[in-house]
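Onboarding guide, step 5: your first structure request.
Type a short instruction followed by the sequence, for example:

Predict the 3D structure of this protein.
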Amino acid sequence: MAGSSSPQDSSELKMAVSCYRHPEREGVYYCQKDGDYMCEQCACCRSPRIYCQYRTACVIQVLTQEGELEDCTQRKDDEPTAVDQR
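The system replies with structure tokens like these:
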């Protein structure tokens, strides 16, 4: 049937989204509050003290609490940080 797409066609159209700080990396995490995609290195709550209506459902927050993502607030001063002062 003309105009219909199969599941295989849809998967071919899937496009990777870039990290907001590293355009060469895939943005695998999404911050709903800031509207940014982040790579694993950048995946961090940039403003943990500011109210976020999405925090209870935030995958970045959950993975940080479970130890699967590095807590950026615990990084040493000489390490790069994902905290971005815009």
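Each response can be followed by summary notes, for example: Residues 6 and 12 are 10 Å apart (CA to CA).
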